[in-house]
Amino acid sequence: MTVILLVVSLLGAGLAWRYGYRRRTPGGRGARLRAGFYAFLVLAFVLAVAVWQERAAPDVLAGRGITPYPGFDSAVWVPALPGASTRTWMFNTRDPFRTVLNYYRDRAHYPGWTLEEESTIHLYLRKGASCLQITFGRNLSILSRDRTTTFFTFHDPCPP
Hints:
Structural class: alpha+beta
Low-confidence stretches: none
Largest sheet: 6 strands, antiparallel
Helix content: 40-55%
Number of strands: 6
């Protein structure tokens, strides 16, 4: 989905450039189109960063010592607020909720991490001063019906 938005924003920037700079438009529309060109360029930059982050998501998990679930078919980068010490990733799969939950209940998939808390919808892990909360849920939206969504939220350092 992010790639589609990136392509649309680049097309919008191209159209705004063509009609804002290449053609003389009456009634001040040229200035608005030129402003639209820059707005589309900023949007394209933000979406390019998001696409890059989403492609790197499994490697980020592996780099932190977490084995990514083999059935994950998409990742969504959740940008952190400025000054926040958390980093969140969202992964989706068509596999059943319990399958993903049972995969991460196996401690072999997060070596070096200590399981601090476990419930039916999340695991809370600690490794030194870092913490990781893995939250599992069913995505019931119309566009992604019957998909399992897994959130990985890294805290550096752990909250008190």
